[in-house]
Amino acid sequence: MAFLGPESQWAAEASECAGDQGAFWEYHDYLYENQGGENQGAFSKDNLKAFAADLSLDTAEFNQCLDSGKYTEQVQADTNLARQIGATSTPAFMINGQPVLGAQPYEIFEQLFQQLLAE
Question: Which of 22, 27, 58, 12 is nearest to 4 (CA)?
């Protein structure tokens, strides 16, 4: 989901491009380790490409993916869907069609799952 402007959009797209190489979560974690505030330049396209190099991804493939906008529509669609259910931040979950927004204690999830199991 990309709620914070162009850099969050690019970072989400870059994560999908890393996923093409089986490195979605590795790239995801690297983004969190290297964030520098909303739209402050930390997730510029040049930096996102450098992160891929730091993680030893195939940079030609990664750069082509990011530059082509391969995942632009998917990220925008995911972001729009999240907004429709009221998720404008993380964490956000959908459990059997019911949104669970924000950090919730274990008991909330346990109650929801117990209700589902009882149906």
Answer: 12
